[in-house]
Amino acid sequence: MSPYFDSMRYMRAKNFAQFKRDLATWGAPTVNQVYADTHGHIGWVPSGLAPKRPNWDGLMPVPGDGRYEWKGFWPREKMPFAYDPTKRYFTTSNEMNLPADFPYRERKLGFEWTNGSRHQRIEEVLRSLPKVSIEDSERLQNDIESIPARRLVALLAPLTSDDPSTRAALSLLKGWDGQMRADSAQAALEEVWLSRHLGRAFKRAVLPHAAADAFGAPDTAVMLESLEHPQARFGENAQVKRDAVLLASLHDAYQEMVRLQGRDSTAWQWGKLQTNLNAHPLADLVDGETRAKLDVGPIGKGGSAYTPNQSTYRASDFRQMNGPSFRVIVDVGDWDNSRAMNLPGESGDADDPHYRDLAQMWLNGEYFPLLYTRAAVEKATERRIHLVPGVRTR
Predict the structure, then answer these.
(1) How confident is the model at residue 129 (pLDDT cuts 50, 70, 90)?
(2) What is the pLDDT of residues 190-229, one digit of tens each?
(3) Distance between CA 82 and CA 90 in Å, rounded?
(4) How does pLDDT run across 245-259, given as a tens digit for each residue?
(5) Which string of DSSP letters, residue by residue, matches 97-126?
(6) Is the model's pTM score more than 0.70?
(7) Which of 116, 126, 122 is nearest to 87 (CA)?
(8) Helix (H) or strand (E) holding 2
(9) How far apart are CA 204 and CA 206, in angstroms?
């Protein structure tokens, strides 16, 4: 596939037409490519080889007897793209972003997408801004407002309970804005509820137990839609059954938080549960002192899988497993005004002061200048590393 060789070509593109042409041979991984130029034009090109499947969609296994063979790949001109959209911006966050008029039944590019909450939150922010500055972009990349959390809080708003733990949980979450801060007690309770209790209770309420136990966490979008419109899945007395699921699972989550962080809910913190650890590949092979030198973290973290600042964690121990270790904001035309962040540092040498010095800045949502012109780079240069070929001796 060698896709990144295409990068060498499209970085020299003079216009959007050349940009699209230079991506025509990008094979895999399939990614969203974005374009901007100094004349103010912007564009979006999803790139990657997409097979033609004449009589199936690729979602399920099929017999390998020749009836379901691919018929080549869709050419670049048959793939979607955007150029100078009327709303003057576009976003990509792995959501379903095929254009409304794209013939998806014929050109079966994909049917499984990540949750759209991050995209929805990014849209909320961008629509509220008359013009987006570098600083706005920094704040947006570090935004930790969770739309699923907001939806769950809205479902709880009219509910009451005589059970002390459930009543305390309802009181804690009442009016919460869904900000997944590391020091937030509400975020800790909501995520423990969502990832460890609500999904299991929901499955068992709408499916036979054997079916519910046959798979892991339910799709969050499907679950939220079903909870907001219970008649579709809960049968008779749907709202009563839905409310019972919400309250019983919330009770269990509150009790678990008591076990995890004590009875004083004002001391609960999401960052005491969710942590980021940059584990060195050799850490398990060395002694504890050396491991502490090689590893960076663990450090308490905010955000969730559904916030623009993505933080997908392992539900078993809340260790962050996915998220942006690298961030970049490009000021097109004023290149030296660009910003970036790279976790945990720029050096791979554990004895170097730049091995872990960016970790706290990354956690705080800070950036360093991403300099471009030679003059700016030379002015900021701290040290040069020369790689000199050795002389082979016998």
Answers:
(1) very high
(2) 999 999 999 999 999 999 999 999 999 999 999 999 999 9
(3) 8
(4) 999 999 999 999 999
(5) ---TT--TTTS---S----SHHHHHHHHHH
(6) yes
(7) 126
(8) none
(9) 6
> Residue 191: which of 112, 113, 116, 272 has the closest Cα?
272
- Does an H or E element contain 183, and which? none
Q: How far is the C-alpha of 114 from the C-alpha of 219, rounded, in Å?
A: 10
**What's the gap between Cα 335 and its chain centre?**
27
- At 99, list the tokens: 């254009």
Give the C-alpha separation, 361 to 34, whole Å.
Answer: 26
Tokens of 28: 């895999």
Q: What number is the average pLDDT over the span 267-294? A: 95
Q: What pLDDT does 6 receive? A: 78
Supply the DSSP symbol for 47.
E
Question: Residue 191 is encoded by which pair of tokens?
Answer: 């995520």
Q: In what order do the strands lie in the sheet with 368-369?
A: 326-329, 339-342, 368-369
Q: What is the DSSP letter of 226?
A: H
Q: Report d(CA 52, CA 112) in Å as an integer.
A: 17
Q: Which residues contact 293 (CB under 8 A, 6 or more apart)?
A: 350
Torsion, CA 197, CA 200, CA 205, CA 206, rounded to 10: 140
Confidence of residue 316 (pLDDT cuts 50, 70, 90): very high
Question: What is the enclosing helix (H) or strand (E) of 34?
Answer: strand 31-36
Q: Is the pLDDT of residue 394 over 80?
A: no
Q: What residues contact residue 384 under an 8 Å CB cut-off, 6+ apart?
A: none
| Distance of alpha carbon 118 from alpha carbon 18, whole angstroms | 31
Q: Compute CA distances 30 → 26, 95, 173, 217, whole Å.
A: 8, 13, 39, 26
- Report the Cα–Cα distance between both ends of the chain, in Å, rounded: 40
